[in-house]
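Retro notes (design track)

What went well: tokenization of the new backbones is finally stable.
What didn't: we kept losing track of which sequence belonged to which structure.
Fix going forward: every design gets posted as structure first, then sequence, in one message. First example under the new rule, 438 residues:
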């Protein structure tokens, strides 16, 4: 009838709404079952693919480690004499000829004090006091290590609690309780006893030798002119500061300038006027490399060594093929006793932190830092050796490997694979531990 409101829609009965709810629930269950079926099929495919690749790929290296000890434990001499658990040959064999090599003449002419002085005598006196304190602390650390080892031997002789019937588990538990420095690091400290080290700006003299060799290979050295004066084989102070910043040797301009001042005072570089004993961050101040350090041609020796190793740059795309075709699974025990005194003096704690930043900067600039197995800042041991040698931080292969091993002992890098415990010049992944994952 006209004027009446429209009739309301018919209300569904309670039984009909209940049936609709049951129908919707069944359809949701069917969708879940279909999703589970597809997931099961995908997992079956993954399992079949892995089983087909077990003959050519060692999947044990990708297993997640339960716990990584911060520092390898040191086996005492008493435990080593049991014979049931032979120690790794790395510590003893790598430094078997340490005493003979340590008696060699120091051709670098190291001295405990700097022979040249800065124009600001007050600042230099304060700096040299800090460096002398750093040297005393360094030698005291080696002395304390000897005293600690002698005390351990005396305690072992006075009260020997070991029994011939010790089980394997008891021996392992005894070893794990010794929280001492890494064996290879201990061997390096023993080698340092016969090496005289001087410190400048908190870093050893050998660090500045490596820095100067790097600058010699990286800076543009050519004839410069200022007004009517021409200077052959010169570079600018501004270029030197910039190169130290770009490569990661220095964090800011002030630090780079201080490092440059040390290079001048040590006589590695000099102002063209030979009257200024500081490095100026400008394009109008020219400097030359002196004859104090020898600069061999890096291209010839490095190229011949690279050709003999047949090593090519790789990335994440061809990593698997390169490993399977070129690298063996055997771990190499390097003879670090043949490494130079210079590199042993270089790998102090402070210098290693700087070198880790250098690797980070260079790998980042060359796009060599990879994201691998959930870790950021990953790189290959072979790539690190190439970078260390190309930058003239180390001049030989064994010296470059020793730097990598020292970085690992200091906890600045660590291997990704659980089967690797040392630094290897191979296609083995390591990661920089000081890089945040965020």
């Amino acid at each position: 009838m006209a004027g009446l409101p429209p009739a309301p829609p018919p209300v569904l009965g309670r039984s009909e709404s209940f049936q609709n709810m049951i129908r919707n629930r069944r359809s949701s269950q069917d969708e879940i079952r279909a999703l589970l079926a597809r997931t099961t099929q995908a997992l079956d495919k993954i399992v079949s693919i892995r089983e087909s690749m077990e003959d050519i790929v060692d999947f044990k290296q990708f297993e997640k480690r339960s716990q990584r000890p911060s520092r390898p434990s040191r086996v005492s001499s008493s435990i080593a004499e049991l014979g049931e658990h032979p120690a790794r040959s790395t510590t003893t064999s790598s430094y078997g000829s340490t005493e003979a090599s340590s008696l060699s003449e120091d051709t670098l002419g190291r001295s405990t004090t700097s022979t040249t002085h800065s124009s600001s005598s007050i600042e230099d006196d304060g700096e040299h006091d800090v460096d002398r304190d750093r040297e005393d602390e360094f030698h005291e650390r080696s002395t304390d290590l000897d005293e600690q080892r002698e005390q351990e031997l005396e305690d072992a002789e006075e009260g020997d609690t070991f029994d011939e019937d010790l089980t394997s588990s008891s021996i392992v538990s005894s070893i794990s309780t010794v929280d001492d420095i890494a064996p290879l690091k201990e061997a390096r400290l023993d080698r340092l006893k016969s090496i005289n080290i001087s410190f400048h700006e908190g870093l050893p003299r050998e660090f500045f030798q490596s820095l100067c060799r790097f600058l010699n290979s990286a800076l543009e050295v050519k004839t410069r002119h200022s007004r009517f004066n021409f200077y052959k084989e010169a570079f600018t102070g501004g270029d030197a500061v910039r190169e130290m910043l770009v490569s990661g040797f220095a964090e800011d301009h002030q630090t780079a300038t201080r490092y440059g001042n040390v290079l001048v005072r040590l006589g590695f570089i000099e102002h063209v006027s030979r009257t200024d004993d500081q490095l100026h961050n400008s394009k109008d101040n020219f400097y030359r490399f002196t004859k104090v350090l020898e600069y061999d041609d890096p291209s010839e020796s490095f190229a011949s060594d690279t050709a003999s190793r047949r090593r090519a740059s790789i990335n994440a795309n061809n990593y698997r093929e390169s490993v399977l075709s070129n690298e063996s699974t055997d771990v190499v025990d390097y003879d670090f006793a043949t490494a130079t005194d210079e590199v042993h003096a270089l790998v102090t704690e402070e210098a290693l932190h700087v070198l880790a930043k250098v690797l980070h900067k260079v790998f980042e600039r060359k796009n060599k830092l990879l994201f691998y197995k959930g870790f950021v800042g990953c790189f290959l041991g072979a790539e690190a050796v190439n970078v260390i040698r190309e930058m003239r931080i180390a001049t030989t292969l064994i010296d470059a490997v020793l730097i990598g091993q020292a970085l690992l002992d200091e906890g600045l890098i660590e291997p990704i694979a659980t089967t690797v415990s040392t630094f290897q010049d191979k296609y083995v992944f390591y990661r920089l531990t000081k890089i945040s994952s965020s």
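Added context from the reviewer: Residues 298-432 form a domain with the Arc Repressor Mutant, subunit A fold (CATH 1.10.10.10).
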